[in-house]
């Protein structure tokens, strides 16, 4: 593990078929299993486990169970990070989720990749690239984030998108592959759902 772990975070090829690596990973996944088995009403139990699972956990974070991760300990959470049901983190290297990130159900965030040639894949060759989701991003249901991408702050990724390249800040983007559709602008603060006016009386702090 001491020899392999540095290569997991440099983009270099390494063999993921290591008994020591597997044992370490199973210890991490045991904590995630424990989290997923808790009574859904046991909020204190869930909150107590999150810092044991992840590398960093800000204030007021919650992942709806079940979620799954390859490790957990390479994922970093800012404040107020929320993930709906069935998040999958293929976090063989670092995943960064900024403040106020919202993740819809059935999302996959993957840092891991394998060489194209089958001879290398038979050797369990793997390389990893970090994923960064900056603050205030909303990732819609069923999205897939591929290794190495960054999503800029405040952006919205539409449901079912495959994010294979960086997405800038302050845009709405969707599709396969995910592409920028339009900027987020002032009209988005006064209307929602295709032009319906927003009643500001209930949003004192907006």
TrEMBL record:
It is an enzyme of class 2 (transferase). The keyword Repeat applies. GO terms for molecular function: galactoside O-acetyltransferase activity. Residues 5-59 form the Maltose/galactoside acetyltransferase domain. Its EC number is 2.3.1.-. The keyword Transmembrane does not apply. Keywords: Acyltransferase, Repeat, Transferase. InterPro entries: Hexapep, LacA-like, Mac_dom, Trimer_LpxA-like_sf. It comes from the Bacteria. PANTHER family: ACETYLTRANSFERASE YJL218W-RELATED, GALACTOSIDE O-ACETYLTRANSFERASE. Belongs to the transferase hexapeptide repeat family. This is Acetyltransferase. It comes from Allofournierella massiliensis.
């Amino acid at each position: 593990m001491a020899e392999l772990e540095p290569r997991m975070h440099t983009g270099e090829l390494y063999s993921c078929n290591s008994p020591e690596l597997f044992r370490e990973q199973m210890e991490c996944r045991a904590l995630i299993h424990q989290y997923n088995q808790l009574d859904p009403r046991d909020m204190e139990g869930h909150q107590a486990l999150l810092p044991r699972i992840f590398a960093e956990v800000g204030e007021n974070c919650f992942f709806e169970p079940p979620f799954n991760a390859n490790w957990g300990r390479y994922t970093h959470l800012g404040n107020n990070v929320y993930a709906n049901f069935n998040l999958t983190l293929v976090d063989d290297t670092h995943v960064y989720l900024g403040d106020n990130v919202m993740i819809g159900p059935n999302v996959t965030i993957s840092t891991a990749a394998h060489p194209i040639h089958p001879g290398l894949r038979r050797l369990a060759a793997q390389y990893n690239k970090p994923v960064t989701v900056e603050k205030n991003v909303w990732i819609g249901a069923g999205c897939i984030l591929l290794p190495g991408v960054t999503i800029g702050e405040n952006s919205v990724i539409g449901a079912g998108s495959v994010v294979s390249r960086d997405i800038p800040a302050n845009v709405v983007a969707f599709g396969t592959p995910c592409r920028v559709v339009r900027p987020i602008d002032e009209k988005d603060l006064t209307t929602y759902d295709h032009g319906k006016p927003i009643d500001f009386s209930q949003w004192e702090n907006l």
